[in-house]
Design brief:
- 2 copies of one chain form a homodimer.
- Chain A has about 350 residues and is of the alpha/beta class.
- In chain A, about 40% of the residues lie in helices and about 15% in strands.
- Chain A is built from 15 helices and 11 strands.
- In chain A, helix 5 crosses helix 6 and helix 8 crosses helix 12.
- The first copy, chain A, is elongated and about 85 Å long.
- Chain A starts with a helix and ends in a 6-residue tail after the last strand.
- The interface between A and B is large, with 133 and 133 residues.
- Strand 10 of chain A pairs antiparallel with strand 4 of chain B, so a sheet runs across the interface.
Chain lengths: ~350, ~350
């Protein structure tokens, strides 16, 4: 499922990289001519026949983006980067003793998106100057840069130690609340969201009293963070006795920023957002798997409309087609390469 | 710190949006001519003077990218999206009872990167066709699409229920190990990483025996996941009695994929990766804050070299400069706008 999800809409070509002829074919594909070609995204080390120098000798304006684990090329994955940047000591229940890793491969996802941005930026540069280039992007540096961008590094440099605060929001008001039949996340980050929450739960008088007692102006987000326990107590008593059916319209009418905790199974079974009622999704038929509710890109471009999701290919499904159209190989040449097992596919099992 | 980190290298212009003249100025900036202008990235609702129609009337090829919380425009933040997509029930210790939110705002980060990709893609389209467009990107859809891309939705559709597995890696071998003086994350996702681990810890004989007993071919990642408890027991006894100083060179020589758990304070104080020894970082002087170790982009472009990080501006620091250079306003006109408080800045306090 993981494989199918990540390889939607790709073309797959199978080439034997242990042979010199295989290298030749791959290099020819990578350095094919034209403004829409000559871009390589890879996590192979840029060495030997895949070195930027070797490839650039065939196409001087080649754009090559190499994704690395560590900056020095050493092996690293999302699950080893995250422990090293401290986030697991902030994640998890207040009383947790050890580190808590995230399950979402956030660093991988972010690195993939940055790679797309990097390729487009390099293509823009090539169009303007004619110049190609080699771009490196290390998973480790993505994580470190993000820590810096989010202010964690500057905070630690100044001796700030952030505590674990469970599911509460850092820096403003937000947290978990159990109503009669559901667990809710309720957030008041902006002033507008705070006003909406006070309106929906009729909190104004109680909040005014809390402000007086604490001396904190609760229209400021930092003060809402300071008084989060007291605010939570006010919210809790107003939420715990009501049902989701009662609270949801109340919250939505006032514009409260909230959601309901649900499992992935519940999301898939019951939430219209995760169905074809959301134009993001379409049902695709994935060979060997069956029907899958598959997402298109969340980027909803007005020009040209949204491209629907396309199933993942079998390994080598496009070998012949790509060699024919991109490299102009004849059927005889393709047949010969296939006989000698320099190329292959499609394979049934990915 | 958060604010400074996220606003590095930006230009800041202060305009009073409650006035019609303020709207005029902002619209003129948004629709300024030239191929490097005419792009608006915003989380304001595209209504009134900020509607795509109103702006396009001034520049027909305008590119506008609107970031939304929910697809319907309702308020949502990372902290309310995450509970609704089920990840908090997978994150956290096996014995945790409730949901565990991530602390890293992964959906925000991913949405920001996708917005950059979307703008560059739209600029590419505009260059080729002359056509601008309005692009929408909802935080909610980013999360849902990611769940789909990672295979979570297809898995749930087929009745698969993923269990909480604490800090273990899903689908292969990986987890926490305490050595004498440090807590380590050790991963064997690929065959190469698995072979390296077996070599480094002299596991070959024990693994061969485990394979025989369990009937599992442990060179396959799925089988390493099935036998993860047994493999962990083998690793644990070989790690627990040794020091980090002993294990680190052993692991690095063999090419093991591993890291050490450390807090952000430890990272910042002791790890060379989080210092100017890493070309990602430079020390910048942030007015009002002092020296900050700030990251550049993790995208290391060979062409032109890496741009160093630039401190965040004060609010309105560039008001005059931008109005003068982009709109060609005279000093007298700028002075007049300032007197009437249509524009402002720089302000000392962001």
């Amino acid at each position: 499922m993981f494989w199918c999800g990540l390889n939607k809409g790709k073309h797959s070509v199978c080439i034997d990289f242990t042979t010199a002829e295989g290298h030749e074919l791959a290099m020819a594909l990578i350095t094919a001519p034209g403004p829409d070609a000559g871009m390589l995204l890879t996590n192979y080390a840029p060495r030997g026949w895949l070195s930027h120098e070797a490839l650039r000798a065939r196409r001087p304006d080649l754009i090559q983006l190499t994704i690395q684990g560590k900056r020095d090329g050493a092996s690293a994955v999302d699950y080893t980067i995250n422990p090293a940047v401290g986030i697991p000591f902030l994640t998890g229940p207040r009383e947790a003793e050890g580190p808590v890793n995230h399950v979402l491969p956030a660093w991988d996802l972010l690195t993939g998106q940055m790679a797309a941005t990097g390729l487009l930026a390099a293509e823009r540069h090539r169009r303007r100057t004619g110049e190609g280039q080699h771009i490196k992007l290390a998973l480790e540096d993505v994580a470190l840069a993000t820590l810096g961008n989010l202010g964690f590094i500057a905070e630690a440099e100044r001796g700030g130690v952030r505590e674990r605060i469970g599911n509460s929001l850092y820096g403003a008001f937000g947290g978990d609340f159990q109503c009669q039949d559901a667990r809710l996340m309720i957030v008041a980050l902006t002033l507008k969201q705070w006003t909406a929450l006070c309106t929906a739960l009729d909190l104004d008088a109680a909040v005014a009293e809390l402000s007086r007692e604490s001396g904190l102006d609760l229209s400021r987000e930092g003060n809402r963070f300071r008084a989060r326990e007291e605010i939570a107590a006010l919210v809790r008593t107003r939420v715990v006795t009501r049902s989701l059916a009662e609270l949801a319209p109340l919250f939505d009418r006032a514009g409260v920023c909230w959601s309901r905790y649900q499992t992935i199974a519940e999301l898939v079974a019951h939430d219209p957002a995760c169905s074809t009622a959301n134009p993001l999704f379409a049902v695709t038929e994935q060979p060997g798997v069956g029907n899958i509710l598959a997402p298109a890109s969340p980027l909803d471009f007005a020009a040209g409309g949204r491209l629907p999701p396309i199933p993942a290919p079998c390994l080598g499904e496009d070998t012949d087609h790509v060699l024919r159209t991109l490299l102009g190989l004849s059927d005889a040449a393709i047949g010969d390469l296939r006989t000698r097992a320099i190329i292959a596919g499609p394979a049934k099992d990915p």
